[in-house]
Specification:
This protein has 300 residues and is α/β, with parallel strands linked by helices. Helices cover 46% and strands 18% of the residues. The strands form 3 sheets. Strands 3-2-1-4-5-6-11 form a 7-stranded parallel β-sheet, sandwiched between helices. A 3-stranded mixed β-sheet has the order 7-10-12. The protein has a 3-stranded mixed β-sheet with strand order 8-9-13, with helices on one face. Helix 5 (87-100) packs parallel to helix 7. The longest helix has 15 residues, at 125-139. The protein binds NADP nicotinamide-adenine-dinucleotide phosphate (NAP). NADP nicotinamide-adenine-dinucleotide phosphate binds next to helix 1, strand 2, helix 4 and strand 7.
């Protein structure tokens, strides 16, 4: 154990949780977790695992300054799907607090600034706000590192489980066409983040794409069919049809798939870099085997 303290935001969630677990396992850091609810079950589990838990809120800069005291590093993630447009001021609050506290190493979970990259043709608010946060950090010359996390494999359990058809097969549809969709087991982000903190100078001002596999959606479906013993089928859904599905963020997600389909032919280079940094990165098939019970549970 060294005296290097790393503050992790989103520690009770998917990205930050994996980061906390990997950093603790490395035995190189004191890990401090930011949460609005230090007595939640998730926060208690983090304490049991050996982390320190601090109350704080990304809306409250004073709480961030307090939590950052004495920190050597920060892993930052903001949650668009809870706060929507407020993600931007929350992210800027964290970046500004890191600067004020002169924390030497920041790793921030961002996504490409699609609106800017496409000259305003495609807008993906949950990407674009993170792109703006990244620009803010770059303007302040913090020498931060940015991680771009791919579509979680876990989305097939929590957000987009294949739906039962009348013929007892299961189906999902995205506006992704036949272009590979980059995916990742979200826990593996922690392995990549731990590798970056182990050699932070090498990653200053860089962006690392965190990707475990990069398959056409028909392959994700075929893999689930093979491992789960259920017929799972993918079909392309046109962007407009997906955007009209009516759930909050449908338009945003439709544009995300559209951007992927039109502008990201593959993420092989990111797979190789992620594997180099963390050889334990999971491909989709082993992940499905590992999560077979949870997947079968959402199907039935
Ligand atoms: P998550 O599992 O839903 O957890 C959200 C975390 O954010 C919790 O730890 C929560 O902590 C914390 N949080 C929320 N509001 C906060 C606030 N005001 N102050 C302090 N902490 C706050 O989230 P996640 O999946 O790790 O990360 C979400 C982000 O990932 C989203 O912005 C999304 O766009 C991005 N993303 C998702 C995917 C995907 O495929 N799903 C891929 C790439 C990127 P407490 O509740 O304990 O306070």
């Amino acid at each position: 154990m060294t005296d290097k303290t790393v503050l992790v935001t989103g520690a009770t969630g998917a990205q930050g949780g994996g980061v906390v677990r990997h950093l603790l396992r490395s035995h190189k850091y004191r890990v401090r977790c930011l949460t609005r609810n230090p007595n939640s079950d998730q926060a208690n589990a983090l304490k049991l695992a050996g982390a320190e838990v601090r109350r704080g809120n990304l809306d409250d800069p004073a709480s961030l300054c307090e939590a950052l005291e004495g920190s050597w590093g920060v892993f930052g993630v903001t949650n668009y799907w809870e706060h929507f447009a407020k993600e931007l001021p929350q992210g800027k609050n964290l970046v500004d607090a890191v600067r004020a506290a002169k924390v030497p190493h920041l790793i921030y979970s961002t996504l490409p600034y699609v609106k800017k990259l496409t000259g305003g043709k495609i807008e993906v608010p949950h990407f674009d706000l993170k792109g703006e946060i990244e620009e803010h950090a770059r303007e302040l010359k913090l020498g931060a590192t940015f991680v771009n996390v791919a579509f979680y494999f876990e989305n097939f359990i929590h957000f987009f489980p294949p739906q039962k058809n009348a013929d007892l097969s299961y189906a999902f549809a995205f506006p992704q066409g036949d272009v590979p969709l980059a995916g990742v087991a979200v826990e593996d982000l922690g392995g990549v983040v731990a590798a970056i903190f182990a050699d932070p100078e090498a990653f200053r001002d860089k962006t690392v794409g965190v990707v475990g596999d990069d398959l056409p959606c028909a392959e994700y479906a075929a893999t689930m069919s093979r491992v789960l013993g259920k017929k799972v089928v993918y079909s392309h859904m046109p962007r407009e049809q997906y955007a009209a599905l009516g759930f909050p963020g449908a338009d945003d997600l439709a544009n995300m798939f559209e951007y992927n389909r039109l502008h990201i032919p593959n993420r092989q280079a990111d797979i190789h870099e992620s594997l180099r940094l963390y050889p334990g990165m999971q491909r989709f098939e082993p992940w499905v085997k590992e999560n077979k019970a949870a997947l079968l549970n959402v199907l039935t």
